[in-house]
Structures are given as C-alpha cells and as structure tokens.
Specification:
single chain; elongated; 5 strands
C-alpha cells in the first residue's frame, strides 16, 4: 500500500484530501505544518507528499527543496497545492523540483489523475534504488580482537592496588567524621 504525507493547515482541505486518497486505497498521514512534516519524513517514509504551498513553519516549496536535495528521498514525489485564489510563483515551485501542482478545493478525479502516475514512478524508483543497494558489495565487519582475560584481570588488579590505599584513607576519614572524631 502506498503512503502519502498530506501536509495542510486547513482542516477542510485535510478532510477532503484524506477522504479522496483513502477511498483510492492509499494510507494517509496528515500533518498541519512544514516543520513537523520535515521531522516526520523518515518515519512516515511516503511515496508522495501533497503539501500546501503556504504551510506554517516551512512552506510546501521548502519541503519540496529538502526532499529533492536528499538522496535518501530520491523516490519521493512532491505535489504542491494552493487555493484557487491564492497567487504563488509556480515557476519557483518548478525550480524547487515539484512534480505537479494541484488547486484547492480538491476535485477527486483531478487528484487521482495527477498522483497515480507519480506514485507508480515513486514505487518503481524505490524498487530500483533498493535493488541497486542490494547489489553493492558490503565489506564484512571487522572481527574484534581477541581479548586476553588474564591481561584484563592483571590490569584491574594493578589499578585497584594503586587506588586502594587512597580509598582506605578516604573511607576511614568519613567513618571517623560520622563517629564524631
């Protein structure tokens, strides 16, 4: 099942987006600000991010730039959203690397027409990336040096022999103080 991170501070847009996406079988994680969205990227591990351009904290464009500049997230597709009457620089969004732009209020057929091919691309890229990593030869972990138990015991004994007189003196002083001497 594909996972979509829906980042929008409008409760109405979140409800509409969640309903549309869940009815199509997507798992949806909804967040209300850009900072939290960036912090949750690793644990959500989405195939696609649907982010409002005007999110508080970090904007949708900033999230997009972050995703597109992180090699670990190379499979993630980003769709930026904005209200029909909210003017924003679509060219800046494209320069940030967004894969598509959707206008709100969401129309179910337009949302699906936009995100289905992007989710498929993301899953293909994720699979190719995983295969490439699997073919990379991983050097075996170095074997830890063998520990000589007798040498460790001898070192501990020497350390205790050196510290014992000072320890005995310190304990004696504290006992005498406790006894009022």
């Amino acid at each position: 099942m594909s996972r979509i991170l829906l980042a929008d501070d409008s409760p109405h847009a979140q409800r509409m987006g969640e309903r549309i996406l869940r009815e199509e079988g997507f798992e949806v994680v909804s967040l209300t600000d850009g900072e939290t969205s960036l912090l949750r990227l690793a644990d959500v591990d989405p195939d696609l991010i649907l982010a409002d351009v005007f999110l508080p904290g970090k904007s949708g464009i900033e999230i997009c730039r972050h995703v597109k500049n992180d090699a670990r997230l190379r499979h993630v597709r980003v769709v930026l959203t904005a209200g029909l009457l909210e003017p924003f620089d679509e060219e800046e969004a494209r320069r940030a690397g967004c894969d598509a732009i959707l206008k709100k209020p969401f129309e179910a057929s337009k949302v699906m027409e936009t995100i289905h091919p992007l989710v498929e691309e993301a899953q293909l890229t994720r699979g190719l990336f995983a295969e490439a990593l699997a073919t990379v030869a991983v050097p075996p972990a170095p074997t830890p040096p063998e520990i000589d138990r007798e040498r460790v015991q001898a070192a501990v004994t020497l350390a205790l022999d050196a510290a014992l007189p000072a320890l005995v003196h310190e304990i004696t002083e504290r006992v005498l103080i406790a006894l009022g001497q």
